[in-house]
Amino acid sequence: MRKIFAQGCEDNIEWGKHVMGYEVTEDGVQAIFADGTRSVEGPLLVGGEGIYSKVSKQLSEGKLKVYDTGARGTHGQTPSASFKGLGEGVFRLLDDTRPEGSVFVITNVRPEEMDDPSVSFGWTMGGHPGVIRAPNDDYTIVGRTAADIAKSLTQKWHPRFRPLFEDMNESETAFWKITCSTPSGVPDWPNQPRVTVIGDSVHSMTPAGGIGANTVVRDSALIGRLLREAGGYKAGVTERYEKEMRIYASEAVRESYSTAVKQFGIVIDEETSLTV
Fold this sequence. Notes:
By secondary structure, this protein is α+β, with helices and mostly antiparallel strands. The protein contains seven helices and nine strands. A hairpin with a 7-residue loop joins strand 5 (89-95) and strand 6.
């Protein structure tokens, strides 16, 4: 998806910068980076830097929160040939035989790339709180440690599914925390005409329902349409975007959370739960 969305923008992408916030200037806005430098001045800043977004915290004055559900997972890459036993389609595999909680895997098989040895397909694994544990609760670990856990959880699975994990590229395997934004809905904050947020920066979701990526694409389409209709940046664009986004994003977060309560056994208390 990153490659697709970056097409035509490659010359304007600057890698290796960590956004710490922003400053609204007389004629625009600048992103502030951790190394002390700033972006070029532009008419509009759209924060899309995920659950740890500094832009969203500054913009919402801390009202936008992301909760750690306690559920954990791993994700990885496996050569496409290892998926031949599945066939075409989007798959959700569920192992609910474990007394400590269930494990699920989500993956997508594209048959037209099955015979290309250079192509790998991704998969995502998750489980009830306590089922998947990273050493010392360190979820920055990448590689064999995460791969070994995924293999151990699937070693008794049907031979049709085991190649996804037995043949994985171990160096690409990583842990992840299952998080969720405020289940009661996207909060209001004072509109800043030159700054807004999209995706996980404003509505992080669990993998339940598989609607997180769809919602960020909807964000992008909405703000893109509003900018086109306005002929570029105009005051009022971000306000109209946020008003509409809050409605469908709040519905999506509630749907994702309520499904995850049933599937993963998670519970978020907005008053007492720890945020990420």
